[in-house]
Write a structure and sequence with these properties.
Structural class: mainly alpha
CATH class: Mainly Alpha
Shape: elongated
CATH architecture: Up-down Bundle
Radius of gyration: 16 Å
Mean pLDDT: 88
């Protein structure tokens, strides 16, 4: 199977990542507001904290897109609006983070191929945070991530 982002220019790759970050902000803030149950309420702040980190990622990506001469997208990727229980929300967010991890890995390879080491470094830093987010959501799930399906299974290859 072909490499994700292989035929895209770097600005388009960064805009795709930015759209996904914008969607994650909305999704995670929604989950912060609506999570139910005693455990959910106790962890609501984690959803908000991760949303704020995603906001910083979207900002960094937008600034880099602008620096490269592109136009940062303002369009957010689709948001998951199902569920209110902690397990449902954490599972959706874990899946989104694992998808992001794979996308950032692919984007790093694109930046490397373009010899854009500044972008590569920025993407590596964001990747490390995305991996931390996935761990946070996995912990909310009690490390039970069975049934997890990637938003784009092609990225797993």
């Amino acid at each position: 199977m072909s490499e994700p982002y292989a035929n895209m220019n770097l600005i388009d790759v960064l805009n795709d990542l930015r759209a996904r970050e914008l969607g994650a902000i909305v999704q995670y803030m929604r989950h912060h507001y609506i999570v139910t149950g005693p455990e959910g309420v106790a962890l609501a702040g984690d959803f908000k904290g991760i949303a704020i980190e995603e906001m910083k990622h979207a900002e960094e990506l937008g600034e880099r897109i602008d620096a490269l001469g592109g136009d940062p997208t303002a369009k957010a990727e689709k948001v998951n609006v199902e569920g209110v229980a902690l397990r449902e929300l954490a599972k959706a967010d874990y899946n989104a983070e694992m998808d992001a991890v794979m996308r950032y890995r692919a984007a790093i390879r694109v930046a490397e191929a373009k010899t854009d080491y500044v972008t590569r470094r920025m993407l590596e830093d964001i990747l490390a945070q995305e991996e931390d987010h996935a761990t946070t959501f996995m912990n909310m799930l009690g490390n039970d991530v069975t049934g997890h399906e990637l938003l784009n299974p092609k990225l797993a290859e």
